[in-house]
Amino acid sequence: MALKTEEMVLNMGPQHPSTHGVLRLELELEGELVLNVRPHLGYLHRCFEKHCEAMTYPQVIPYVDRLDYLAAMSNELTYAITCEKLMNIQVPERVEYIRVIMVELQRIASHLVALGTFGLDIGAFTPFLYCFIDREKILSLFELTCGARMLYNYIWIGGLSHDLHPDFIRLAKEFVQYFKPHVAELNNLLSYNKIFIERTANVGVLPLEAAINYNITGPSLRGSGIKWDLRKNDPYSIYDKFDFDIPVGKGTFGQVGDCWDRYFVRVVEMEQSLRIIEQALEQIPEGDVTSALPKRVKPPEGTVYARTENPKGELGFFIVSNGSLNPYRVKVKPPSFVNLTVLGELCKGCFISDVIAILGSIDIVMGEVDR
Fold first, then answer.
1. Cα–Cα nearest to 128, from 213, 186, 44, 202
2. Domain ranges of the chain
3. Closest by CA position to 132, among listed 157, 154, 110
4. CA-based end-to-end distance of the chain
């Protein structure tokens, strides 16, 4: 006799800690089996794009910080590059080096949160503490530089708010040497843990074709096996001066593009960021970081789009200028919003507990989803 089951709708979040912020997931279930997942937004609407119309171009930077608040430096760089492209501003070489150092430190800090909370989502508490201890050291470097630990307003249109602290380069070099062995420690603690592998391998497999069709970017795309990174494929700033690799998913413990692959790409990316930081610290030239700052930011009429490789994927800004001090229109393409669209596809046929693992492997921040 066949067992009769009924479908059930279950709400997960926004109070659930594993939904990574104020996100409500509507799950259609048959027992423990997930038939469909629909993300519902609207709990953190910040009106970012509308706010920009009432702000001058420099005043937008603190709002940009609050999109992906775990990667504020990276957001600032994208916005600054977009405005500089619109105004045809060439920044000094020292500014470019400092920007690269900052955003690569930010990439490591963002990935440490992603990896620590991912382990926490599926029951591993200790790696979370280890990751946050290391992240605090990066935040201390940021605090030394601009006085803030999370929201910085440091990368300005045409340069930086001010130069590095005299001790920064020495302390940054010390951090690089300190952190190198800690990546291997994380692998021993979490990456190759038997329970962690069983919870993530062959779970939430994202085939490459589906990733491309959904316009997935960042580690979630590279986890599916393709080397696509704007720092290499569409170079900006001075990334073409540095030697580093683009890690991709290889299906080490299961199929290519599973949760473990997406996780491990971020682990290896931290090592590559250390390589970039090391080279930049050795090559950084002298110079004035404020020499190209415009006295008044008033771009000509026109439109511009620029994009960068943020920790979570491709971040792009489209700006429409009408020649005034305020942008006429600012449109942002955030990686978290785009990457979240594939969640329903990944969760079909999995179990409820897998939904948490899959969502954690995408690494979203609701500040740039519900913007």
1. 186
2. 8-369
3. 110
4. 51
Q: Which residue has the tokens 């994009």?
A: 307
Each residue of 5-33: pLDDT tens digit?
688 999 887 766 667 778 899 999 998 89
Q: How far is CA 333 from CA 17, 69, 185, 365, in A?
A: 26, 15, 35, 14
Q: Which amino acid is at 320?
A: V
**Which element (helix H / strand E) includes 159?**
strand 159-160
196-250 confidence digits (pLDDT tens)? 999 999 999 999 999 999 999 999 999 999 999 999 999 999 999 999 999 999 9
Which contiguous run of DSSP H or E holds residue 333?
strand 329-333
> Right CATH number for 8-369 from 2.40.110.10, 1.25.40.10, 1.10.645.10, 3.20.20.140?
1.10.645.10
Which pLDDT tens digit goes with each residue over 70-82? 999 999 999 999 9
Q: H-type helices in 88-222, by residue range? A: 93-121, 126-146, 168-186, 194-200, 208-213, 219-222
| Number of neighbouring beta carbons within 10 Å of residue 201 | 17
> Structure tokens of 41?
């937004």
Q: Is 10 helix (H, G, I), strand (E, B) or coil?
A: strand
Burial of 298 (0-12, 13-18, 19+ CB in 10 A): middle
